[in-house]
Amino acid sequence: MKRLTVLIAALLAIGIQARADEGMWMVNAITKALEANMKAKGLQLSAGEIFNADAPGTSLTDAIVALDFACSGSIISDKGLVITNHHCAYSDVHALSTSEHNYLEDGFWAMHSSDEIYIPGKSIFFLKKVIDVTDEVEELIASEQAAGRVAGSRRVSYLMEKRYATKDLEASLSSMWAGSRYYMALYEVYTDIRLVAAPPVSISAFGGDIDNWEWPQHKCDFAMYRIYAGPDGRPAKHSEANIPLSPIRKLQICQKGYQDGDFAMVLGFPGRTDRYSTSYKVDFLSGLSLPISNEIRGKEMEIVNKWMNADPAIRLKYSDFFFSLSNVQENNDGEVQCIKRFRVADEKREREAELQAWIEADPQRAEKWGTTLSAIDSYYKRTNDYEKSLICFRETLVKGSKYALASKRLKNNGRSNKVSRAQLSKLVADIYAEMDMRVENDLFAYSVQKYYESVDSSFWGAYQKELYSKFEGDASAIADYLVNESWMTKEKEVVEFLTESGDKSIEYYLNCPMISFLSDVSVSDFNDRLIAIVGEERLLEHERAFTHSMYQMNLAKGIPQYPNANSTMRLTYGTVGGYEPNDGVWLKSTTYTKGILQKYDPSSYDFNLKPDWKALLELGSYVGPVNFLTDCDITGGNSGSPVLNAKGELIGLAFDGNKESLASDVSCTDGYNQCVCVDIRYVLWTLKYYAHMDRIIAEINE
Description:
Blueprint: H1 2-14, E1 25-26, H2 32-41, H3 47-50, E2 64-67, E3 71-75, E4 81-84, H4 86-96, H5 103-106, E5 108-109, E6 117-118, E7 124-132, H6 134-146, H7 153-164, E8 170-176, E9 181-190, E10 192-198, H8 201-204, H9 208-211, E11 223-229, E12 243-244, E13 263-268, H10 279-310, H11 312-341, H12 344-360, H13 363-369, H14 372-398, H15 402-413, H16 421-433, H17 437-454, H18 462-470, H19 475-485, H20 491-499, H21 506-510, H22 513-518, H23 523-534, H24 539-557, E14 570-575, E15 579-582, E16 585-587, H25 593-599, H26 611-619, E17 627-630, E18 642-644, E19 650-657, E20 675-679, H27 680-690, H28 694-701
Antiparallel strand pairs: 1-14, 2-3, 2-7, 3-4, 4-11, 5-10, 6-10, 7-9, 8-9, 10-11, 11-12, 13-14, 13-18, 15-16, 17-20, 18-19, 19-20
């Protein structure tokens, strides 16, 4: 606790410096200096009104929720109504959709409470308390090591969470600054979650992948769930006897809107950033890792998109997969471009030079951290060629097709005495239910070609080398052979296997050429090669040491700092406004429905409009903004986060960043990073006039 006090004192002494709007700040550590800076921007609340677990009454964070820590959301009614992004609900809507009831294309609207659909496996988390447990964790690690036990992060988390969890609250330990500090978060968890509303993708994702990460955008990206509790109001398993949750706090909705320069704040659960990464890691990402994976995933997107455009049934089956693939690929491709454009590695090298000088100024620091940066540099140089082959292997033979996933499950479980034929079939039944073999055959053929082209032959397995020799290096012929000779690609044999209607043995199925090819090399083989290159040296240990040293330098110099995002609740703030992406180009802060009609293209899937929606837009009855920009600092996991005004009222939902912000995982570029939001008034107008969900509008207004 003493060290935290020192940190707070340092912050109070210097105030928040330039670029302080950058940052995903821990809600449990809002200092007076940070609070003062937010108030200077226009905030009309105190820090205690945002988060205060120990004071009587409620705070804003009592209305903020995590959806399986993949997205964020907020409570907007007294009956447990949760609003988030449509793309956060996409997988649930996709899972519910059939050719008869395609909720992705047509939308889902629960016109009555009985129409709300339970989503198995979904959980919603309310943060109840955060405790600084740094001293406890350090004592635990010391005692475990003294007892001769390995005090790894998993064991430490298990022991600490067991210590703090209660009958009513789940505990989650988080490491900040690579173990410089530790916090225990306590959550109330609800598991009876039901879908209430989700517009068609032509409304929620208008512009599709083409407009993703772009500005201007015109998406009505929202969906609604409802939390159900037991009759006593507490978390309970799904039951028809359950009732809508009566929350302790809901967000008030602002109908007055906003203007450029107005204060804006985002509360949510950002998933992951790596802003303490070194210049060496940034060079690795932009120069090797991401370009390889981006190229492969881009080609996979072409293959899948071709089939989706050719067959609506394939679009329904693969839309969720394509959505996930394209989102990651476009994000990573933009990250490479932004790292180069904004010279992120150079920025980090300047910071590392400052760090090295600080380290060398003190003998104790020099002994502890003096060689950290040079060790990281050496590690990346020695493993460069290895990493290239590993990345290609993972992207092709591990993740390149659903055959790869099915093969892995069969290989890992097939010869176990504990797994029956029936269990073996069930292990892959869900995979085949999501497959179209025409698509998978094309994906597999590309994976085989790319694998042989890009993975050094010294990594190939014996069977892979045998086939390469047999077909004289013709990867296309190898793929054709494996497809033609494998039962996994033949519908009749697959049905026999899944229904256990055939008389073939387990051994027959396991001796499949495709399984032999896909399992000829494993990740463990690559791990063995890595050990041969670097021995027992671990990059993670060097990077942890770097983060520790950077944390201590910032602390010593009184530089405000926030830890990397790690799915804990954070606050970020800024203002509404446009920005200048390039010299002489100014982009306004808001878009309107006229932009939707201007982009409308009936020949394009992404820019097509349903006739009733188009007619409604043409009436011009909605005159407010559709989407708007703030300069709040967000990342993945913030999707669905409420965007709040100076009074803490809901003005919109965060759903995207701009393409100039795509290096934000490793660096926040001042003046360029933007948060793209959907206006809450546009959401409510869509609910009322398009979906005619008067019951939900009335509920929100109660």
